[in-house]
Amino acid sequence: EGNSGLWNVVLGFDNKKLIETAQRAYAKLPAYHAFFGRVGQAALDLSERVVKLAPMEANRVFYANSGSEANDTVVKLLWFLAEQEGKPHRRLLLSRKNAYHGMTVITASLTGKDYVKSASGLPVKEVRHLTCPHHWREALPKESEAEFSGRLALELEQTIRNTGPELIAGFFAEPVMGAGGVIPPPEGYFQAIQPVLKKYGIPLIADEVICGFGRTGEFWGSQKYGMKPDIVVASKVICNIPTRPVTCCVR
User: Fold this and answer.
1) How far is residue 158 from each of residues 81, 109, 137, 163, measured CA to CA in Å?
2) Are the CB atoms for 196 and 157 separated by under 8 Å?
3) How far are the Cα atoms of 18, 126, 133, 212, 219 from residue 50, in angstroms, in the given order?
4) Comparing C-alpha atoms, which of 203, 194, 108 is closest to residue 156?
5) How far apart are CA 221 and CA 237, in angstroms?
6) C-alpha of 93 from chain center
7) How far apart are CA 210 and CA 216, in angstroms?
């Protein structure tokens, strides 16, 4: 149960309340696809609740089938918005080394793990990886956490300026880096990088797939670590029948 409890089954196995809730939902089973703007009541109810619980002002929910597909959908939304704003060249995506965002072509590219590099020529050219915010491994000798965070914020700004802010569609970040080693951010990290992103008009996407729904002590990892995201991706513990278990919450 240890690993499933960490990622998927935070309320434990054989939970009677969950079993009873699922049975009541299956008795209704108002299933319908959402391709033509029609969904079951359960999906509407869940969407309204997610919007209210979001860690930022939100008014849209988009459902997908997995965390990978949810992050993939965010990329498509970012590119779509850029097209609609007359900025089709705004396609580059920022991530961090050691991050994990999924295993589709785009999300595997956002994933900053070495094992992705040997798979089918990934990462794709649209992705840039910044330094992993792991103070113990990446800090300079005698560099404090706050100083380390400041240096990473400077690296971010230099990368944006060297690349061209008009080319960058978004910055993806897990509040706690899960597959990278369960790495919480160093002191002041998000407080240091968010002003840089805001300065250049680059959206911050919080990948809460394994951080949301109370796992960090707050309802969202974003709340725990002072993130103010523009888009939140959540998964794993959303339990609503018959909707899929992943949602993107978009401001």
Assistant:
1) 25, 21, 22, 8
2) yes
3) 18, 31, 29, 12, 12
4) 194
5) 14
6) 13
7) 9
The length of the chain is 251
Angle between helices 145-163 and 189-199 (to 10 degrees): 20
206 three-class SS: strand
Q: Which tens digits make up the pLDDT trace of 123-182?
A: 999 999 999 999 999 999 999 999 999 999 999 999 999 999 999 999 999 999 998 889
Give CA angle at 117 (113, 123), nearest 5°.
95
Residue 109 tokens read as 């590219």
| 204-207 β-sheet, strand order | 60-64, 246-250, 231-234, 204-207, 168-173, 92-96, 127-130
Structure confidence by residue, pLDDT tens digits, 115-136: 887 767 889 999 999 999 999 9
Q: HSE-up of 176 (CA within 13 Å, CB side)?
A: 20
3-state helix, strand, coil in the chain (%, to 5): 40, 15, 45
Nearest to 55 by CA among 246, 241, 244, 226: 226
Cα-based distances in Å from 21 to 24, 136, 178, 212? 5, 44, 29, 21
**Is residue 45 classed as helix, strand or coil in its secondary structure?**
helix
Considering 6-20, 47-61, 79-93, 109-123, the range whose residues carry the highest mean pLDDT is: 79-93
Vertex 234: Cα angle to 93 and 237 (nearest 5):
150
